[in-house]
Amino acid sequence: MKNTAIMLLSCRDSKGIVAAVTAFIYQNNGNIVTADQYTDFDDGMFFMRIEWELDGFRFTPDEIKNGAFSEIAEKFAIDYRLYFSEQKPNMAIFVSTQDHCLLEVLWRNSQNEFKGNVSCIISNHKGLKKVAENFKIPFYHVEKTLENKAEAEARELEILQEHDVTLVVLAKYMQILSNRFTDVYANRIINIHHSFLPAFEGARPYHRAHERGVKLIGATVHYVNQDLDRGPIIDQAVMRVSHKDVVADFIRKGRDLERLLLVRGIALHLDHRLLAYKNRTILFE
Amino acid sequence: MKNTAIMLLSCRDSKGIVAAVTAFIYQNNGNIVTADQYTDFDDGMFFMRIEWELDGFRFTPDEIKNGAFSEIAEKFAIDYRLYFSEQKPNMAIFVSTQDHCLLEVLWRNSQNEFKGNVSCIISNHKGLKKVAENFKIPFYHVEKTLENKAEAEARELEILQEHDVTLVVLAKYMQILSNRFTDVYANRIINIHHSFLPAFEGARPYHRAHERGVKLIGATVHYVNQDLDRGPIIDQAVMRVSHKDVVADFIRKGRDLERLLLVRGIALHLDHRLLAYKNRTILFE
Amino acid sequence: MKNTAIMLLSCRDSKGIVAAVTAFIYQNNGNIVTADQYTDFDDGMFFMRIEWELDGFRFTPDEIKNGAFSEIAEKFAIDYRLYFSEQKPNMAIFVSTQDHCLLEVLWRNSQNEFKGNVSCIISNHKGLKKVAENFKIPFYHVEKTLENKAEAEARELEILQEHDVTLVVLAKYMQILSNRFTDVYANRIINIHHSFLPAFEGARPYHRAHERGVKLIGATVHYVNQDLDRGPIIDQAVMRVSHKDVVADFIRKGRDLERLLLVRGIALHLDHRLLAYKNRTILFE
Amino acid sequence: MKNTAIMLLSCRDSKGIVAAVTAFIYQNNGNIVTADQYTDFDDGMFFMRIEWELDGFRFTPDEIKNGAFSEIAEKFAIDYRLYFSEQKPNMAIFVSTQDHCLLEVLWRNSQNEFKGNVSCIISNHKGLKKVAENFKIPFYHVEKTLENKAEAEARELEILQEHDVTLVVLAKYMQILSNRFTDVYANRIINIHHSFLPAFEGARPYHRAHERGVKLIGATVHYVNQDLDRGPIIDQAVMRVSHKDVVADFIRKGRDLERLLLVRGIALHLDHRLLAYKNRTILFE
Known about the structure:
Four copies of one chain form a homotetramer.
Chain A: E1 4-12, H1 17-27, E2 31-40, E3 45-53, H2 61-68, H3 70-76, E4 79-84, E5 90-95, H4 100-110, E6 117-123, H5 129-134, E7 139-141, H6 149-162, E8 165-170, H7 179-184, E9 189-193, H8 205-212, E10 216-223, E11 233-240, H9 247-270, E12 274-277, E13 280-283
Parallel strand pairs in A: 5-6, 5-8, 6-7, 8-9
Antiparallel strand pairs in A: 1-3, 1-4, 2-3, 9-10, 10-11, 12-13
Helix pairs in contact in A: 4-9
């Protein structure tokens, strides 16, 4: 794979944006690999993901970041983020006691399936330490009680900083993060919820789904914001259940939904294919 | 197809039920075509669907109904319903202005796909009268206002009685039925709701799904009881949507979910494959 | 909906194509509505679908067609096709005796779901004439025998010309078209095949699927070329079957796959979202 | 879970089988947990799976095996197999170099999700030895060349015997077994094939699927018999692909299909829910 730059843009829609952005790349000797755009006509907003090869491009990554694009950005009031394929972001996995999502993430990580690396695992329990060791990933046990929550989160943020983490993955963490924490990592915390949101927000969704007599169970991978289970949805999936399934069957079957959907969300985020806008996500597939 | 009897049974679980029921059929010269059973171990309840050929069977349908099975039924306190494949039940379709579900039901009916017949169409609008005429099905326009609801329902029940209707299908009827009505047809009214229940109960589910930014839209076919949108779920289905879809796209895409799911629910009911227990359905597939 | 131009482009990949195309639109006062591109890196080929508003655009549709874009097209050796949203193409439906696909297409047509119109129905049988009349679409009975095939096709091509047809839809037509015919409508004939191609090419796919004991049945919507059942695949879908299903069940269940998939293929084609390249389709979704 | 007996029966269809079998269980004080049956009316064959609690049952497992049921079996010429939930069968996993299926099976095994145990791993390569050690499962490296195939298989059969293996799982083994081997384990070898059979039988299915331009890729879990890739299909699954996916994407995406489908096949087999008849499987779900 060649080294590329990926830009995610959003701005008010107006004529000439695509022409300006593509001209900037072309005139500076860049070769566009992919470009995808979306216009929200109701809101008059324009969104774009564009990727181009840096080999032969006039500007270095630093120069792009520090101004080469600024004239166009100012002209159209573009809000943009810039990534470089050679700079693989670090992610941290938060876990509690369940291992299925963690194992799935670690196996994908070991296969180099992600455009990023798992740099640490943080848990409020010690049970999954052995798994971390098998995969040779640093494991931090940060105990959490009702009393020490602020301190514990401060410690967690410290660890994230040490590891230069830009994506936090809640792999069945089962703990609510404070606004202080979620604000630091706005749209950079991915959670897997074991229901088809907005059905069964909150605790024990499989139990409530069973009680309601649903015929499909679901899972939702989403960004976490201040409203629990109400952040922008990245993707959803469902699986058939029957009257024969008891709650334990829902839980067992749901595990497959959860782990596959979680890694899908992570992969999309790390490939810079997601843009959160209002309370939804734009997915450049 | 040979003429068969179909029995749906439910009772408290105990040893010997299956042996007793199958012995009753065998000893009276019946040939079992299919048998399916389910035990709810939490509640200690037993459910069964059994079908046997009537050709050569010692008892006539009337004799079975009027007592041949009564000894066994009393011994195990079995609650049972008995159907005969030659007696095709009549159904009524309630519609408002949307035609897609009605057309789907009428087309299947014309193909003899149902083990039952559409005997009339009732609508609070006149718009779909032409469709009814094309398919040669009696059409009744029963206007409904806030004021005349009780009278209108009385008229509807009268029509249903005239046509000997045992299944009411709400094909996007968009009107709430009174408890008086739903009690008469308990677990014999099938509705199609355009969301993945219990998400988006009530009005305008596609609008609310769009606002929430879901990635899958759903539909639910269910029995109607006194609690709107909370009756036993028969089946559910979902379809992928993207950020590019506006509400009108949700509505358009959802139509395919709705009509296919509705006819599936009707077919299962008419084949006596559904047993409502508590707030869920047991499906003998 | 505003009037737009849609261009489908393909050419050898090189720097500057996107910049040139978008600059052409921008500098002539066009507003890009959507743009999607794909590069086949193995073959070094570039493909694009771009749509822009014609309101305020410097050139009329005729001027675009007759030269405004020619300089760029020549520079990059672009093979392009140009469509205008106000010019709705005509399609013809070829049917034999089965009605489910025809009804689906006609219902969608009556709902204005297609960006095109059904202008005539051609059949080698008379059975579906009544359906055509209900929907007020001209119906042509063109008998086909082993002996008269060439003549019959000549008559069909004549009818297509009279109706200015640019898309031929084989809605369970069950007849093989000659190369002479398929060459005239290359990549403009859409067929629905009742198997998951390339499994069960040819006749009686459901029978063979049943014999093989498959657990999923499929359908394939594809362009028809000289090799029967081997044209570029547009889309595919599957449905679960069980050991309980006999061939008649496969056929009945398969009908839902077939009709929904066929209309999806038609809709994508009429929205100019498909580009056939080699033996596959590029889908700009 | 209570200890239960599970019986899989097949015989020519005739009146009284179900009554006889259920009476046998009831009269000997057994409590039927589940019963499922299927009649193939074309062939006049009857199939049944019945499970009952052994607690309080008059006969011991040995007595059932050695004759208690023989009178009924003879009367109806029933071919039956009998299993006991407390006797967990042993399985062997055959692998080559790919680890995804192996990891999935071992993780499920470690979660006690199977009604059976992985007792050994056999491989023609040494690469996955470490994985076996992590999960504490004996690993045997049996090299295979064109020359030593007979000897190698003899050694493999020896290992299987040592471990009392009754189910052989080919987890991407990529080697063809001889008839001698498959005959020993008829309908007890499960393979995962990376295509939607019968499409792309044989080698490199993803490459050929890509070349054909399919829009869905598939996988098939099946019993292995003498005809490669033509044994009774247990289950199949598919996944959407697009024109953007290169062969490597097919392979990567397909891994998820393969591993989930393989463990589903294993679980169904170990729960005695599969009956191979002719070239298909009857699934008692």
